[in-house]
Amino acid sequence: MQMQVIKNAKVINEQGQLEDGHIVIQNGQIQAIESNAAHLPEPKDNVHVIDAEGKLVTPGFIDMHVHLREPGYEHKETIESGSRSAVKGGFTTIACMPNTRPITDSPETVKVVLNKASEANLAKVLPYAAITKNELGRELTDFEALKAAGAIGFTDDGVGVQNAQMMKDAMNKAKALGMPVIAHCEDDSLVKGACVTEGKFAERHGLKGIPNESEAIHVGRDILLTEATGVHYHVCHVSTEQSVRLIRQAKAIGISVTAEVCPHHLVLSDEDIPGLDANWKMNPPLRSPRDVEACIEGLLDGTLDMIVTDHAPHSEEEKAKGMELAPFGIVGFETAFPLLYTKFVATGQWDLATLVQRMTSDPARVFGLDSGVLKAGAAADLTMIDLEAEKEVNPAEFATKGRNTPFTGWKLKGWPVMTWVDGDLKWSEADGF
Ligand SMILES: [Zn+2]
């Protein structure tokens, strides 16, 4: 394979500072990060040189919670369209949820997902398999066969596992196989068909609210089950102050829990919802400003290990049904980094290094991936970002089929401009895919 050099980049060093770097890539791996241009290989025919012109180059982003909708809901998204959206957003590894049609609860469906992903040949797609058959919470799937087919963990995302014994059985089986259990935490008995969080917005509009404890009660239950089983337990899309508190306490006493948080739960509260527009409807819902603060604090102190998008495309017809009837979820790949960069890094509240770690090395560490770091020997999964470029979010330009975002018209900085997977340039702002 041809050697490539990305020269004149800015990279984040081990101290978290920006420095000049030239990245040498060969055989799909990072061969070296040179700080001195004089040490670069001679520009010959077999060396392809890309000039970053001072732009930031980070490890490719890793998103451990996404919905690609295929098989079964191809009108919302396909593995190919979702993967395009991912690389356009700077993501090089994405882990897809099993609530497709059929549900990914059999080795055959795991293989369908993996085959479609390799046909698309864009991002690395890691499939999760369901904990229970059809995600109905009644009978465990065949964990061993699903692992052998390529599943990387077990989750009934979209719904919570309601029965504690079922969850404990799942944890014991997963533990024996060295696999993680990833939990959508939601107690159905406390939700009862509500569509937004309990609180001011719900009251103003006469809507039933989803209380914070519907999430936290599962987090608390599952932490105790994790203590009993010793499994690696990972909490999906944390949205409440109570969940953050429980996870922080559990980590402090050495329970093997990790957790993720979504950009929208860091940036928006229920007080920001402009009206009954279902582009502001997601599960978990936007919570109170106090919950937002707790999630930010949790992310910064490492209680919440990583940022995930929960990319959840739906068709415009589905989202037009209104706040109560439309399905939950918003798209996330193409706005995640610019949104968080603009809101938190450009304003001086967070270090750039912290944001990048939570989207790269932290998910890689938690899930044991060989990417997410800029060092010799790592996969050459890379994202180049123009931190100065400013533009408005325009859903008509998205690569995803979904247009369901609350961020339309937001002016953001820090847009990805090139994405490599295993050293292959998959997308560039200038030339597309
Ligand atoms: Zn979920």
Q: How much β-strand is present in the residues?
A: 15-25%
* Arithmetic mean of pLDDT: 97
- Structural class call reads alpha/beta
Helix content: 25-40%
Biggest beta-sheet profile: 4 strands, mixed
Shape: globular
What are the distinct ligands in this entry?
Answer: zinc ion
The SSE order reads EEEEEEHEHEHHEEHEHEHEHHEHHHHEEE
Counted beta strands:
17
Low-confidence stretches: none
**Distinct helical segment count:** 13
**Termini, distance in Å?**
20 Å
Major sheet strand order? 3-2-1-4
User: What is Rg?
Assistant: 21 Å
Quick description:
The chain is an alpha/beta fold and 433 residues long.
Description:
- This protein has helices spanning 79-88, 107-120, 143-149, 164-177, 200-204, 213-229, 241-252, 263-267, 289-300, 316-319, 336-345, 352-359, 361-367, and strands spanning 3-12, 18-26, 29-34, 47-51, 56-59, 61-66, 91-96, 124-127, 181-183, 196-197, 209-210, 233-235, 257-261, 306-307, 382-392, 411-421, 424-428.
- With 433 residues, the chain is of the alpha/beta class.
- The strands form 5 sheets. Strands 3-2-1-4 form a 4-stranded mixed sheet, with no helix packed on it. Strands 5-15-16-17 form a 4-stranded antiparallel sheet. Strands 9-12-13-14 form a 4-stranded parallel sheet.
- It is globular and about 65 Å long.
- The two termini are 20 Å apart.
- Zinc ion binds at residues 157-158, 184, 236-237.
